[in-house]
Amino acid sequence: MDLPRYEKIWLWFGVITLIIFLLVTGIMAFAMDRHPADGHERTVAPDQVLSTAPFDKPGVYPVGDKEYQVVMVARAFNYLPAAPTVPAGSTVHFRVTSPDVIHGVAIPGTNVNLMVVPGHVTEFTYTFKKPGEYLLLCNEYCGIGHQVMMAKMVVQ
């Protein structure tokens, strides 16, 4: 098969680019021992979520001046705690996990949008500047009661 000259050039360019990509990825993965979520991933056994600290006592905990940690458990078909409350202007550090299936935590009107995988600890920080009640919705289909899985975040 006879290919035009420019087509051959672009084919060789693509092949060389692919080889360079695979070499760099291989060197980073095996020689440099670099992997996605390098050391940042926290896990807990899904069947022991409700008996492992801090998820054995979900709630709101102060960690500094106007800074709170909200420890949550997302399970079919509710959130624990159901209505975490913080003062307005607070920085909230969410720590969420699930003992059963994949869930989500989305707060409309904010950039809070978390995927909660069973046994994996999902962390996110957000500052609530305006007081009010914020709706927490599950945005990952989690089963037949998914449409009723919601809670509220109270900012006073």
UniProtKB/TrEMBL annotation:
It holds the Pfam family COX2. One of its GO terms (molecular function) is cytochrome-c oxidase activity. It is found in: Cell envelope. Keywords: Copper, Membrane, Metal-binding, Transmembrane, Transmembrane helix. GO terms for cellular component: cell envelope; membrane. The keyword Nucleotide-binding does not apply. It catalyses: 4 Fe(II)-[cytochrome c] + O2 + 8 H(+)(in) = 4 Fe(III)-[cytochrome c] + 2 H2O + 4 H(+)(out). The chain crosses the membrane at residues 12-32. InterPro entries: Ba3_CcO_II_C, CcO_II-like_C, Copper_CuA, Cupredoxin, NosZ/Cyto_c_oxidase_sub2. Residues 65-156 form the Cytochrome oxidase subunit II copper A binding domain. Subunits I and II form the functional core of the enzyme complex. Electrons originating in cytochrome c are transferred via heme a and Cu(A) to the binuclear center formed by heme a3 and Cu(B). This is Cytochrome aa3 subunit 2. The lineage of its organism: Bacteria, Bacillati, Bacillota, Bacilli, Bacillales.
